[in-house]
Write a structure and sequence with these properties.
84% helix, mainly alpha, 269 residues
Length: 269
């Protein structure tokens, strides 16, 4: 026969549970920071898995070009179509290429590219390493005197760190092509003139911070995806949980980094 708890006991149980959840959160955050910091020690230590790094670059970069290019084209197309009526009302149609260039290069291109990679690349890494953890392949590598962190985590994180900035630049270029196509729906303009006006509005403070933060985006996408898979629990259900958690956590990290980058850029400009 169950005894009901009085209000004081219920409040005490609630506080205890919240403390336990808070402790678990901080333990997990500290473990993730230690896991991420280990990358900077392992990346400089031989042996260097160049073949695996190139293969992961192929998976992250080349395999994502179509999706990134399609998204970038639609992004530039829609942005131009949506902003043209407002710009035309003020007689500023000629400024649309510059506005598109600054918007895409500074903010939209890197962030959208990173978010797409969170869903495509981060989930794949979380599920891949999670399945290896569940089937004890990672434990087998440790028994065989192979450093699984070096082979699995460093190579994947290095690939995302190098490839996502290149994908962001590719998305920027394709987005400008989409903007050019949208401009020619109502106004006739040449390809060279559109790009000349767009490039004239871009400055160093627009390009350099966007490229730098793209490297950070790539790092967090890779390291968080690997962490979630590397620390997956036993059972097949944990593979899906690791993939889903990798997408959510890395997406939040991308927005936080973007917020900090915007504040720093504002202070420098």
């Amino acid at each position: 026969m169950q005894t009901s708890l009085n209000p004081y006991q219920k409040a005490k149980v609630t506080v205890t549970q919240k403390r336990s959840d808070l402790k678990t959160f901080f333990y997990g955050a500290g473990d993730m920071v230690a896991f991420a910091g280990r990358f900077f020690r392992e990346v400089w230590r031989p042996p260097f898995e160049w073949r695996e790094v190139l293969y992961q670059c192929y998976l992250v970069g080349y395999k994502s070009t179509f999706l990134i290019g399609l998204t970038g084209f639609i992004m530039g197309l829609v942005l131009t179509i949506q902003t043209r009526p407002s710009m035309a009302a003020f007689g500023a149609v000629s400024m649309i290429p510059g506005m598109i260039a600054v918007s895409v290069v500074r903010e939209i291109g890197p962030v959208i590219t990173a978010i797409i990679c969170c869903g495509k690349v981060g989930s794949r890494m979380g599920a891949e390493l999670g399945s290896m953890k569940v089937t004890e392949q990672i434990d087998a590598m440790e028994v065989s005197a192979i450093n699984p962190y070096k082979y699995l985590v460093v190579t994947r994180t290095l690939a995302t760190t190098l490839m996502i900035p290149l994908l962001a630049i590719f998305a920027d270029v394709i987005a400008l092509v989409g903007g050019y196509v949208a401009m020619n729906i109502h106004d006739a303009t040449t390809f060279s003139h559109f790009f000349a006006v767009a490039m004239a509005h871009l400055e160093f403070i627009d390009i350099f911070p966007a490229i730098v933060k793209s490297f950070f985006f790539g790092y967090v996408v890779g390291i968080i995806g690997c962490y979630k898979g590397y620390h997956a629990r036993r059972g097949t259900e944990s593979v899906g949980v690791a993939a889903n958690s990798a997408v959510v956590t890395s997406s939040i990290a991308v927005f936080v980094i973007d917020l900090l980058a915007a504040q720093i850029t504002d202070l420098l400009s």
